[in-house]
Amino acid sequence: MTDPTDRRMLESLVCPVTQAQLTWDAERQELISRAASLAFPVRDGIPIMLVGEARKLD
Predict the structure, then answer these.
(1) Which of 36, 39, 44, 51 could make an S-S bridge to 30, C-beta 3.0–4.6 Å?
(2) Can you give the pTM of this predicted structure?
(3) CA nearest 6: which of 36, 40, 42, 34?
(4) Helix (H) or strand (E) segment spanning residue 10
(5) DSSP of 30-58, one letter per residue?
(6) Phi, psi (5° rounding) for residue 17?
(7) Greatest Cα pair distance in the chain
(8) Which domain range does residue 18 map to?
(9) What's the Cα-to-Cα distance from 1 to each of 12, 27, 43, 53, rounded to whole Å?
(10) Is residue 24 within a helix (H) or strand (E), and if so which, with residue range?
(11) Domain total of the chain
């Protein structure tokens, strides 16, 4: 997600649980919600914003 369009998309996304801003983890290809302690995967450039698909953060 280095394309400027992708960056704008990232900035417009919020956590589906808390509505808090997300941060991008390029190494893991995940969107991180610190407020919900969840990491949402990005597959083939598409954010998967389903709680059931999210990984719980430690």
Answers:
(1) 39
(2) 0.85
(3) 42
(4) helix 4-12
(5) EEEETTTTEEEEEETTEE---GGGPEEP-
(6) -90, -50
(7) 31
(8) 4-56
(9) 14, 11, 11, 19
(10) strand 23-25
(11) 1
Tokens of 42: 């990005």
Q: Please, which residues have CB within 8 angstroms of residue 38's CB and are 6 or more apart in sequence?
A: 15, 17, 32, 51, 54, 55, 56, 57
Cα Rg, the chain, nearest whole Å: 10
What confidence score (pLDDT) does residue 3 get?
58
- Could you tell me how far CA 40 lies from the centroid of its own chain? 5
Alpha carbon distance 4, 2 (integer Å): 6
- Whether pLDDT at 4 is above 80: no
Specify the CATH number for the domain of residue 43.
2.20.25.10
- Cα angle 38-41-45, degrees, rounded to a multiple of 5: 145
Cα 54 from Cα 58, distance rounded (Å): 13
